[in-house]
Specification:
The complex is a heterotrimer of chains A (204), B (395) and C (342). Helices cover 20% and strands 22% of the residues of chain A. Chain A has helices spanning 4-15, 38-48, 133-144, 175-179; strands at residues 19-25, 28-33, 53-61, 95-102, 109-116, 122-124, 147-149. Chain A is globular. With 395 residues, chain B is α+β, with helices and mostly antiparallel strands. Chain B has helices at residues 16-24, 76-80, 85-92, 100-115, 121-150, 154-174, 196-219, 222-228, 236-242, 247-250, 258-261, 283-306, 359-365, 367-370, 376-386, 390-394; strands spanning 36-40, 52-58, 61-68, 183-184, 187-188, 326-334, 337-345, 353-357. Chain C starts with 9 loop residues before the first helix and ends with a helix. Chain C is built from twelve helices and no strands. In chain C, helix 2 packs across helix 10, helix 5 runs antiparallel to helix 6 (142-173) and helix 6 (142-173) packs antiparallel against helix 9. With 342 residues, chain C is mainly alpha-helical. Classes of the chains: A alpha/beta (204), B alpha+beta (395), C mainly alpha (342). The interface between A and B is large, with 52 and 60 residues.
Chain lengths: 204, 395, 342
């Protein structure tokens, strides 16, 4: 972590013009690459930069969740942001896929990010580079709907095969809160034999 | 005694037809038996929970294996988007339920990084001690239960018996044997009870003795060695590309421990400890590495108790926690492997997105590669030696 | 019947013998099961085992379990072959009963004094393989099938070491009749000193070890319990059996353990005999002595059961064919040479 600048320059040099933006999140360097350079980024990372360890591949949906069942003044459900803002390195749209790779020898790591088109969510698959991407990409597909091109068998991992929808998208409702809003502060029975105050907060 | 042959080279493409002939080699070649599909799980004593392994068998050899997971999927990543930070720690306790304290640590650390506060030193030391105690608890269970999976009934009881002492300690400090939910953003909920440190010293002696017992009873047993040596070999580089982590990767010779090599967290920079690797990468080496790590954890706990600083256990934190906008990635060396949280915050009382990187998910993803051509009993040995927890896989 | 000057009619005698056999098997299973499975295993695992049923250290536990099994619902899998499914436990238990026919408990206390006693005992003990295969196939369950096929391979493979281990004893005793073997040990002498007779365990130590190992495998006990691998197949070929059918299997398993322990005690430790005690005293003490000796042998068998992990199928086959049989053959040859030469 000390020579973050060295790491940054190594990566940006190796990737060249595939890099769109980069930034630093706490604990990791985030490099945003062009969507059509996603797989080549992986190849360069594994073969030339020495990042042999695949930590994870995941998706992110920057759209704020529709507010459901939120009671005014209730602090036990977090307030959802009102407009769409993006994270480190920016984003072209709502969807992004990000992956973290590490080097077991040099003990460094980097997070790569790329945009996914909302209308046609296709991403290049990393399976030919990191075999472990298999399951991560299956989960990403079933949770967000990203189609990974080149993946041997993109099928459901966690969910039953007849499941409809992509749960981790923000417009997929968290059913519990829609059906029944969080009760928030509830009346607490006083302890027998004493007049106890009700809990300070319904939450923590 | 013959042992199963394992393809050793990564990238070695195996033709299932070749294995079929291997199984037939000793019998009349005209006896071309068909394959049988066997469903191991989701209810099966060997799969440690609701893991379902659909294996295609040729006699007793596995031709292909396909793990089916998700029977315990609780949708944590979706849930965290609608929970405040203290509520999230309640949830993530339950990811790896055997070492539940250790699950909270990276998340709380990420939140603290985003808030730019640091827990006081005493809290860091206690957190480290409790993390190492969870590691000991998990590994004692593993040491006993791997013997059980291989067929010896007795080590499992010894494992549980000795684990009770550690769980009593965790309960005395946090109030819960499992799911303590003891971390708070900025520190801990409570200080240690009176007499805990002396009791922990006693328990660590018990743990070290228990490790010696396991070394005699299990590691030294010829049948155990015949069942585990050369079974389930993971080549180091292939394991890394699959994301296999923790003791599994160290047992394949990769010298990488996040407590020593990663970004500094908790009190590990102050501690003096060894990291164990083993060159073989088979089930035996995974058992051996965890045995040594249990001993090392006990010694680390003793060091922590000796060096425990005095002071507050909670930093100055507002009553309602609002984490400023930003992203943080924290990864720690959990008992099962490398666990990490990528927390995206938008300045609210709860996170915007939490990506939970759980160790067992990647550890189990290597199973289809590993289980080709092994015998059915070896499947059980391999599952036991990888040591996954279903909650960790399924989140 | 010298001391008891009573002439018992042939039919009554037969009935008495039948009742004794029918009682001994469940009783043996009960005693062995309670002592070793419930109590000894528990103490070895730092726990107490059943303590409540019956008051004193839970002695009633297994009897209570038996009653519980009897009143359970009889569940037969839908796809199972009903007749074969029902017959399989019976076949297994019958082979246990048949072994006890030749085991002597005293100079006159045995059901049948066959001239080919040993041969007969080992032959009927291998009938259980058929029962196991029937159980595995008829259960219509892949796990049961795997267990049954493993059992077939294993039980057949370990018949040979079992037999060859006993051949040495037969050569030394000069007879296959179990009573004859016991007499040879009781009246024998070691280099002229007949203080403890000549228990064949001293000269046939290798044979004793082989017999114990092979008996462990015949009983599908760890380290040879691949057919019933608890952590893989849960109960192997018995997995679909519940209620009294499972009780039959349980009685068969522990009854056969009693039978093999009694056989080992008879062949190697002198059976019912104490040197110097003959006649009616031997008739009265014989069963007690036999029980003590068989419990000692069973202790060894169960101790190994609760300590060792299990061998994989190919490993245990390799052990049988490549290690045990050659050792047994060498033992037989050496015994034969010594018997003829000395």
């Amino acid at each position: 972590m000390a020579d973050l600048a060295t790491l940054t320059s190594r990566i940006t040099d190796a990737l060249g013009d595939a890099v769109v933006d980069q930034g630093e999140a706490r604990g990791t360097l985030v490099v945003r690459v062009r969507p059509d350079a996603w797989r080549s980024t992986a190849e360069i990372a594994r073969r030339s930069l020495g990042f042999d360890y695949l930590s994870f591949i995941a998706g992110i949906d920057w759209m704020p969740a529709p507010v459901v069942g939120l009671v005014e003044g209730d602090t036990s459900t977090p307030a959802q942001p009102s407009d769409m803002t993006f994270g480190v390195g920016g984003s072209a749209g709502r969807f992004q896929v990000f992956a973290h790779v590490q080097s077991t020898a040099q003990h460094t790591g980097v997070t790569f990010r790329t945009d996914v088109d909302e209308a046609d969510p296709r991403v290049e698959s990393w399976v030919s580079v990191y075999p472990g991407a298999d399951w991560h990409e299956r989960e990403c597909w079933e949770m967000y709907g990203f189609v990974f091109e080149g993946h041997p068998s993109l099928r459901h991992l966690y969910l039953p095969s007849e499941f409809e929808g992509h749960p981790l998208r923000k417009d997929f409702p968290l059913l519990a809160r829609e059906v029944k809003p969080w009760p928030g502060l509830t009346d607490v029975e006083p302890m027998p034999g004493g007049d106890d105050e009700a809990g300070e907060e319904g939450a923590a | 005694m013959s042992t199963t042959e394992q393809p050793m080279t990564p990238g070695f493409e195996v033709d299932p037809a070749a294995f079929r002939h291997l199984a037939d080699a000793q019998v009349n070649v005209e006896l071309d038996t068909g394959d049988m599909i066997l469903n191991m799980g989701p209810q099966h004593p060997a799969t440690h929970g609701t893991l379902r392994l659909v294996v295609r068998l040729d006699g007793e050899r596995v031709v292909a294996a396909d793990p089916v997971i998700g029977y315990m999927h609780r949708g944590y990543e979706k849930l965290t988007e609608f929970r405040t930070y203290p509520q999230v720690t309640t949830l993530i306790n339950r990811i790896d339920w055997l070492s539940s304290f250790a699950n909270e640590v990276p998340f709380v650390h990420a939140a603290e990084q985003l808030m730019e506060i640091e827990a006081p030193p005493r809290a860091q030391y206690i957190r480290t001690a409790l993390t190492e105690l969870s590691r000991i608890a998990t590994f004692l269970l593993f040491l006993g239960e791997m013997g059980l999976q291989v067929g010896a009934l007795t080590p499992a009881f010894y494992g549980f018996r000795d684990r009770e002492h550690v769980l009593n300690l965790i309960e005395a400090a946090t109030g819960g044997r499992f799911h303590p939910n003891f971390n708070r953003i900025g520190g801990l909920k409570d200080d240690l009870p009176w007499g805990w440190i002396a009791e922990t010293r006693n328990v660590m002696k018990i743990v070290l003795d228990a490790c010696d017992v396991f070394e005699d009873l299990v590691v030294g047993n010829e049948i155990f060695q015949a069942r585990t040596r050369s079974i389930g070999i993971i080549p180091g580089e292939l394991g890394a590309s699959y994301g296999v982590s923790g003791s599994n990767l160290r047992a394949s010779g990769v010298d990488w421990d996040l407590r020593r090599d990663g970004a500094p967290y908790l009190a590990y920079p102050d501690l003096d400890f060894r990291v164990f690797t083993h060159p073989d990468g088979d089930s035996f080496s995974r058992y051996w590495v965890r045995l040594q790590e249990t001993r090392e954890s006990a010694r680390m706990v003793l060091q922590l108790l000796d060096g425990m600083p005095a002071g507050p256990i909670m930093a100055k934190v507002p009553r309602i926690i609002k984490v400023p906008e930003g992203e943080a990635w924290v990864e720690t060396e959990n008992p099962l492997g490398q666990m990490g949280y990528y927390v995206v915050s938008k300045g609210a009382t709860g996170p915007f997105r939490v990506k939970i990187r759980s160790a067992s998910f990647s550890n189990v993803s290597i199973l289809p590669w590993m289980l080709r051509g092994v015998y059915v009993p070896d499947v059980v040995t391999i599952l036991a030696s990888l040591y996954f927890i279903l909650g960790d896989i399924d989140r | 019947m010298n001391a008891l000057a009573v002439e018992i009619p042939w039919g009554v005698l037969l009935a008495i013998k039948a009742v004794v056999i029918l009682a001994v098997v469940p009783l043996g299973a009960l005693v062995l099961g309670y002592t070793f499975l419930l109590k000894m295993m528990s103490h070895m695992q730092s726990r107490l085992g059943p303590m409540d049923p019956g008051g004193f250290h839970g002695w009633f536990q297994l009897i209570g379990d038996g009653i519980k099994f009897l009143q359970k619902e009889d569940i037969v899998p839908a796809e199972a072959d009903r007749r074969v499914f029902a017959l399989a436990p019976t076949v297994v238990v019958i082979s246990t009963f048949l072994i006890f026919v030749v085991i002597p408990a005293g100079p006159r206390l045995q059901v049948a004094n066959l001239d080919v006693g040993v041969f007969y005992a080992l032959a009927v003990s291998s009938l259980s393989v058929i029962g196991v295969l029937m159980a595995g196939w008829a259960s219509a369950n892949k796990f049961a099938l795997i267990g049954a096929l493993r059992a077939a391979a294993q039980l057949i493979a370990y018949e040979l070491p079992l037999l060859l281990a006993v051949v040495g004893v037969v050569i030394q005793a000069g007879t296959m009749s179990l009573q004859g073997i016991v007499s040879a040990q009781q009246d024998g002498a070691i280099f002229g000193w007949s203080g403890i007779g000549n228990p064949f365990i001293l000269t046939q130590f290798v044979g004793f070890l082989l017999f114990l190992i092979a008996a462990q495998a015949e009983l599908t006990q760890t380290p040879f319990d691949m057919p019933v691998a608890e952590s893989e197949l849960v109960a192997g070929y018995m997995v679909e059996y519940t209620g009294f059918r499972f009780l039959f299997f349980f009685i068969g398993e522990f009854g056969t353990a009693t039978a093999f322990a009694a056989l080992a005690a008879t062949l190697f430790l002198g059976g019912w005999s104490i040197p110097g005690v003959h006649g009616t005293a031997a008739d009265l003490l014989g069963p007690l002595v036999l029980v003590v000796k068989l419990m000692a042998v069973a202790f060894l068998m169960f101790w190994v059961r609760f300590t060792y992990p299990r061998l994989r199928e190919d490993q245990l086959q390799a052990l049988a064919w490549k290690v045990l049989i050659p050792v047994a053959l060498v033992n037989v040859i050496i015994t034969a040479i010594i018997k003829v030469a000395i």
